[in-house]
Amino acid sequence: MTRLTVLIGDDEPMIREALSEVLAAEPDLDVVAIACDAEESIALAVRHEPAVAILDMRMPGGGAHAAREIRNRSPRTRIMAFSAYGDARSVEEMGRAGVTEYVLKGVPNRDIVAAVRRVAAGAA
Amino acid sequence: MADADRDLHLLVQSVVDYSIFMLDPDGYIVSWNEGAQRINGYTAKEIIGSHFSVFFPPEDVASGKPEWELMTATSEGRVEDEGWRVRKDGTRFWANVIITPLFGETGELRGFGKVTRDRTQHRMAEHALRESEERFRLLVQSVVDYAIFMLDTEGHIVSWNAGAQRIKGYRADEIVGSHFSVFYPPEDVASGKPDRELEIAVVEGRLEDEGWRVRKDGTRFWANVIITALFDETGRLRGFGKVTRDLTERRMAERTLDERGRLLAHLVQAQEMERRRIAWDVHDDTIQSMVAVGMRLQLLASRLPPEHAATVERLDEAVSSAVQRLRGLTFRLRPPGLDGDGLAQAVDGYLAQAISGTGLTYTFTHDLLREPPPESAITIFRILQEALTNVRKHAMATSVSVSMNAVDHGVLVRVVDDGVGLAQPVERLAGRDHFGLLEMRERAETAGGWWSVSGRQGEGTTVMFWVPALMYGESGVS
Ligand SMILES: Nc1ncnc2c1ncn2[C@@H]1O[C@H](COP(=O)(O)OP(=O)(O)O)[C@@H](O)[C@H]1O
Ligand SMILES: [Mg+2]
């Protein structure tokens, strides 16, 4: 089984830690990098070229900005938004940055995990 | 002839303002005076011996009026008549005539005394007065800038003019007979304001008031009202005259310039900033922490033996439903869209999100060409939000329609549902633990607008409000 490498970008430490634990508990997922803002997310994505980058919408520097840069500079990386905001405007904004999977914070863990696998599968 | 008789004879002869002469029992003229010559045009020589019917127009002669007058005078002791009489030259004059029968000592009819006055001038003056009154009535009728109408002593409408129709929207046949309290907002009627105004007008003679009045279609206008009590010569109250002007536009123009308007705009926006800050805090801190807690609880549950896992799962469910409620709170505190997309779009987005999943269908129409100033937009949005919350909570409706229209340099909003309607008058629904209706009214009135709710039981509910939407310094006159 090929393991999926994952980058987490979120400015909220409690979310970063909980999310990385949830993903690490899955046998097929590897959290390779954890960033706390847009610039760090971009830098780590370029360095690790993860299969999936899970980005917070509202982290400093902007989730949409990070998504666009990562798509440019690490084209193999698929991007998933993980956001506390589910309104149409936020979803649209991420859509324009090339994000196809939008997961609202607060959904069950298994839905998060399923979404990560779905995004990665979209890459194949 | 005694001296006194002679004097009297002289007096009668020389009076010029009255034609005074005598007839024999058959109506032939036997005496004549100065006044008669002046008024009728004949000299004594010309007329004495003629029948007095020569003074009547031919149609009166044909109908036997001269004879009838003599007969009536004989039987009644006197006859008075007003009508056209003919002068010697054929012209006519308007005469007041009194004929008195003259009886001898033994009671036999000796003839008649006839006194005639020329009332032509008087009649013309009266006629002119009546015409001028008629013209004045027509003027009042056709004035369109003022509603001018009359009330009876109880306050029922007895007349109506073009201005009243234009300002209030009723035609005369729809409104005459109604009590004038239909023009007052329900809260004023409930507090007895219409009757109080009449009472004051009776005591002081006159009352002036400014305030909201209601048009036929339920919308309101800012009125200047003057009520005048009308008394007759004996001092008895006959009714009231009411003159009303629509000052909506002037009031708005003044408000946009005054300090109060500026302060209000500042307050509304400051309150909104505060809400936004709270919404962000809840969102970015509280919700995120709780989401993280939930994620860990789920992880924990997956690692525990089943009997303990169930407990932790329930804990997670509790956290997750709290997150849902907090999301609802932040949505209400700061609906997305009001920040930058404009009012109509914000309302559209809010409807999509707030109504979807409730089983309600909705329509939204608007004709706003220009974005209202931010404080107006916020006020409108917040009232709308409250009204829609009530529709969801109380109406049991299947559909709701929302419209926003540019009216009187402001925005008129209607929220109409087809639900259960209102079981009681508003005054009894509001208050105690229910602040929604009060808050809506207060927001609208603080902004210089008005708010109303109506809906009979079983007929759905309509919330209607208007909020001025002028930029500072902009004049209310287009
Ligand atoms: N659209 C509506 N349809 C039916 N009833 C309504 C509607 N809006 C308000 N009401 C009635 O008016 C009452 C007062 O409303 P409100 O002041 O908003 O307080 P609350 O919503 O907290 O009860 C409600 O309890 C309800 O009985
Ligand atoms: Mg309510």
Task: Describe the fold and architecture.
The complex is a heterodimer of chains A (124) and B (478). Chain A contains five helices and five strands. Chain A has a single domain, classed as Rossmann fold (3-Layer(aba) Sandwich), CATH 3.40.50.2300. In chain A, β1, α1 and β2 form a beta-alpha-beta unit. Chain A is an alpha/beta fold. Chain A has a five-stranded parallel sheet, sandwiched between helices. The mean pLDDT of chain A is 90. Chain A is globular and about 35 Å long. By secondary structure, chain B is α+β, with helices and mostly antiparallel strands. Chain B folds into three domains: 117 residues, PAS domain (Beta-Lactamase), CATH 3.30.450.20; 104 residues, PAS domain (Beta-Lactamase), CATH 3.30.450.20; 209 residues, Heat Shock Protein 90. In chain B, 47% of the residues lie in helices and 22% in strands. Chain B is built from 17 helices and 13 strands. In chain B, the strands form three sheets. In chain B, strands 9-10-11-13-12 form a five-stranded mixed sheet, with helices on one face. Chain B has a four-stranded antiparallel sheet with strand order 1-4-3-2, with helices on both faces. Chain B is rod-shaped and about 145 Å long. The termini of chain B are far apart. The model of chain B has no long low-confidence stretch (mean pLDDT 89). Classes of the chains: A alpha/beta (124), B alpha+beta (478). Chains A and B meet through α1 and α4 of A and α12, α13 and α14 of B.
